[in-house]
Specification:
This protein is 38% helix and 19% strand. The protein is an alpha/beta fold.
Length: 220
C-alpha cells in the first residue's frame, strides 16, 4: 500500500488546495503561506448577539482571500479530507474560554443539494472537529424537512422566513441538557443557524454554539 501511495504521489502530487503550490511538510493540504493566512489572525470567537438561540460563535476568518478559496475548494471540489482538516483547524483554534460541546451537529443539506454535490461539507467539518475534540458527531440528528430556495439567492430580509421551519430532529432525547455545537461552512445572516439552534434548544439542549469556516456581512 505504501508503494502504491508513493507511485500515486509521483503521478498526482498533492498541492495546496488554495493556491496550487507545494504543501507544507506538516500539512498535506495547505502551503506555508496559505496556512499562515488562514491561521494568522486566530479564530474569531465570542458571545453572539445577532444569531438568536446561539450563545457563542467561532470562525476562522472573513469570507475572502485564502479562507474563501479554501471554502470553495472543499465545497465544490468534493475535498472530503480537506474539509475534515478545516474542521480540525476549527477545533484546534477553539479558545480556552469557549464552551466545550458534548455533541457536534452539522447543518444538513437538502436532498437536491446533496445529490448534486455528492457529500455534505458541513458533515465532514463536524467529523474533523469531533476527532480533534474527542466528542461525538451526530450527522443524522438534524434533518431537512422542506426545501426552500437557496439562501444565497435571496435578499437578506427573506432569508429568515426561508429557513424558519425547514429542520426536524431524528433523536431529540440525545439533546437533553447537552451542549451542542452546530457546524457549517459559511454564515452570512445566521438565519440557517438560528433556525437549527431554535429546534435544538426546544428539544432540551442546554446551550448551542456555532462553528463555521468563514463569516460574511453581519458579525457578532
Amino acid at each position: 500500500m505504501s508503494l502504491l501511495k508513493g507511485l500515486l504521489d509521483l503521478i498526482f502530487p498533492e498541492v495546496c488546495r488554495v493556491c496550487g503550490a507545494d504543501p507544507a511538510r506538516w500539512s498535506p493540504y495547505l502551503c506555508p503561506d496559505c496556512e499562515a493566512e488562514i491561521w494568522r489572525p486566530g479564530m474569531r470567537f465570542g458571545e453572539c448577539a445577532d444569531i438568536p438561540f446561539v450563545t457563542w460563535i467561532g470562525w476562522l476568518g472573513p469570507y475572502q482571500g485564502a479562507v474563501r478559496t479554501a471554502v470553495h475548494a472543499m465545497k465544490f471540489g468534493r475535498q472530503r479530507a480537506f474539509a475534515r482538516h478545516l474542521g480540525w483547524m476549527l477545533a484546534r483554534r477553539m479558545p480556552h474560554q469557549a464552551p466545550r460541546p458534548d455533541l457536534i451537529v452539522p447543518i444538513p443539506l437538502s436532498r437536491q443539494a446533496f445529490s448534486k454535490r455528492g457529500f455534505n461539507q458541513a458533515e465532514e467539518l463536524a467529523l474533523g472537529m469531533a476527532d480533534a475534540l474527542g466528542v461525538a458527531a451526530r450527522p443524522g440528528l438534524l434533518r431537512r424537512r422542506v426545501t426552500g430556495r437557496p439562501q444565497r439567492s435571496l435578499p437578506l430580509a427573506e432569508r429568515v422566513a426561508n429557513v424558519r421551519d425547514c429542520f426536524e430532529l431524528g433523536a431529540a432525547t440525545l439533546l437533553r441538557n447537552r451542549r451542542v455545537a452546530l457546524v457549517d461552512d459559511v454564515a452570512t445572516t445566521g438565519a440557517t443557524m438560528a433556525a437549527a439552534a431554535r429546534l435544538l434548544r426546544c428539544a432540551g439542549a442546554a446551550e448551542v454554539s456555532a462553528y463555521v469556516v468563514a463569516r460574511t456581512e453581519k458579525r457578532c
